[in-house]
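Q: what does this look like with 3-O-alpha-D-glucopyranosyl-D-fructose bound?
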Amino acid sequence: MTTLIHSAQAVTTSAIRSDLLRELGDDVHAGDVLARWDRWGGDLLTGLGQVYSDPTLIARLIHQIAMAHRARSVPLRERDRQRLLQPDWFQKSDAIGYAAYTERFAGDLPHTIEHIGYLQDLGVTYLHLMPLLQTRPGPNDGGYAVMDYDEVRADLGTMDDLSELAMRLHDAGISLTLDLVLNHVAQEHRWARAARAGDVHYRDYFWTFGDRTMPNAYEQNLTEVFPQTSPGNFTWDPELGRWVWTTFNSYQWDLNWSNPDVLSEFVQIILNLANRGVDCLRLDAIAFLWKRLGTNCQNQPEVHAITQILRAVARIAAPSLIFKAEAIVPPTEVVSYLGRGKHAGRLSDLAYHNSLMVQIWSALATRDARLLAVAADRMAAIPTTAAWATYLRCHDDVGWAIEDCDTEALGWNGWAHRSFLCDFYTGQHQASFADGLVFELNPATGDRRINGTAASLAGIGRPAERFAVDRLLCGYAMVFGFGGLPLIFSGDEVALLNDPSYLREPEHTNDSRWVHRPRMPWADLEASPHAHEVFERVQRMIHVRKNTESLHASVATTVMPTSVNSVTCFVRKHPAGQMLQVYNVADYAVRVPAWEFEQKVPGAHVDLLTGSMLTVTDGMVELPPYAALWLVPA
Ligand code: OTU
């Protein structure tokens, strides 16, 4: 029986292969594409089998793959070849990321070219430009309400400008990342407009309901993303005369990914962007893609099967493209986005390490790094071919994703700790050094998140804060040292402070996340106190990192506590060399017994960040406030 099924599968697989060959026509690289089909076609078929039953779907996808490849430019085919030879490019220690809003970084796409030199000078090799495809008019959630995936926002340029920029970035050794907003579209997108006009085909692209029965049933288990500005997960649309699923803002309509047409539309969007020279797609809000009654409709198994399909399509048609998952979900769930079990090595290449970010801020506030080790300890292994995207700040708010089981390990109350962190970072706690803002208080749960730039949260700009710069750099040292792709949020490298001007901008005034999306002050880069010092120190850290092969992401970091609560160690055992990173998250000096370090990585006495030797006095190592050491054996 099994043999029969297997041989039946073999027949279909070879029939699909012949289809692909035929569709590729006289493409000079048809042989390469077929070799990739042989390597990754199985992932595609298995993924499809886990979600879709439409028998015509595979033929459509094969056609799309072949057409996209035939349209792929010579330089991008060369890029495919190079990346296949160096599939770990984003894992290497010389990979350094930078994320920016085009309009705030450079004005528009053509002007971004003028600042490539700045990025190179800093050491950046990966640029994430925040959503830049055509958005709806008016509020658009920072670009995450896309109206047209085939056009660039008119104020930023054209699709050709995008290709041109990608090419210039490639020449400068920089990869380009764009967002793929795939959980929802703007209510003004043509699919949504067609649905409203009564087109049933397009209505099936969305989750719509004639009355509240199903919405009420789903709501039982759903959480609120924007409880204040957009409460509830469903919106009544008068034109449609139905309720529409809107997880985020009421103008963002969730897509129905169980519809194979939605899959095929996104395959086309992905392949088009790849052919424009995009190297990495950030899969926005990917956790929410699949809905299942009785669950919180996040992290459903189908999400991973769909990612596997999309990943395989890209690998066959445009193999230089990689995926970065944006799943802000508990540590036990987030690892699945990098591929576990049957999906290992088949999903996203990168995923945001939200927990590390939150834990660093928690440690800095409490002057206690123990929780970092507790949380890190529970994080499961990721494939050696994947990497964490590590960061201290991004364009979003900070949600206090710290779990009760972790705080309880230290005898702390989870709720009280999260509440303390919110008070602390909004400057309401007496021991606070930070200048943040409250974001989206949830009246039902009392949860609060916070906003603010890294510099403002670290206390830069507060005259009494003697150690603010060291604090910021200590956080960044952890982000750079963890092993993964570190992402600098634009402005952090020159310590830009909160920018309250969003309050005067009608489409931003209700969204205080804009306080930490500052404009680059090119005319006066030293606008912020300590800008120069921070830039030089970040640049230096990048330089050291680039020359330290052992920071390659294929080897995991073990986070270990010490006998001093404010001191934590990141231990890295890479065959190219072992490393012991030491961080003191307190604004006071401490002494740690030298044997504790010796035991972790014997003989690690040279600090790569300063080039100096570790000083041991009477068997103790004295660590100044916010010390950050990357120790290696001499
Ligand atoms: C993402 O955010 C984007 O980063 C946000 O800028 C968008 O508003 C949102 O999607 C909608 O497109 O969905 O998986 O704290 O972390 O909104 C996580 C909430 C997301 C954000 C959440 C996030």
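The CA atoms of residues 483 and 553 lie 5 Å apart. The chain has a mean pLDDT of 96.
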